[in-house]
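Go through the following before class.
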Amino acid sequence: MATQTIASALNQALHQEMAADERVIIMGEDVGRDGGVFRITDKLIDVYGEERVIDTPLAEAGILGTAIGLAMAGMRPVVEMQFDGFVYPAFDQLISHAARMRNRSRGMLSCPLVLRFPYGGGVRALEHHSEAMEALYMHIPGIKVVTPATPYDAKGLLISAIRDPDPVVFMEPKRLYRSLKEDVPEESYTVELGKARVMVEGKDVTVVSWGSMIPTALKVQGALAAEGVSVEVIDLRSITPLDREAVTQSVTKTGRCVILQEGPRTGGVAAEISALINENCLFSLQAPVERVTGFDIIMPLLKGEDLYIPEERRLTAGIRKVLG
């Protein structure tokens, strides 16, 4: 075991998968000599060379399009986009080709690539650098959408994503890159895609969240536990496939649910989970499902982020509302 951050755990996962499988390559803007904006690919070029750690032009559609061709030819490309908001120029490649290749070829071809990028606010970044748009990717049939919240999960989920036979969008909460530390096995291991984690068991109310918002959920859980309120916290880990069973089992037990989401409210992942609960747990509910989310506006710049991102006060108020 070694104490690691999410950033170092991701770097180790890439290193181990590149060592184990020569088909794994890394592509992206500044991923080589500079080691990526957040240094996730740091020093990999020194070990694996420029043919496997490839600094690309600033052309997102070209980067992903090239990776799709390589994946169809048998490679395992791991593509890094510098920020969530930079993926949009490559949407045509993602939606029209990567996500459809298995269906288009009737199973003759697959597209085993990973599209990695940092997402979310809280670091005072510029426009297009702080999006939390996982709902967009959730709505694309043919891809998996994964977002880790801890160093252990970050490593295991990324290894699973690289080994997966289909395209995986891997969203990394940037403000957690170096703010969390925990013991992570040094050997290679996997965490199953599509399997949620019950981080804390409880009996009064379920809080469902993922990625960047998990630390907030855990802080509120701890504070309310001191008051005698038992909060169950579920980390989805994967947005697609969604672990419907874990959510419905928990809400059936507690009878109450609050969904915590950084992204905009309307049409978000929280809305889908709320619908899932209403369809499967209606007769177990003791209160309407509550959503605590970002707002239907563009992420504000600089200190405005603090007013946008759901924080402990808003989550606590949501929990008290369903308990009342």
Notes: The radius of gyration is 19 Å. The first strand starts at residue 2 and ends at 4. The chain has a mean pLDDT of 97.
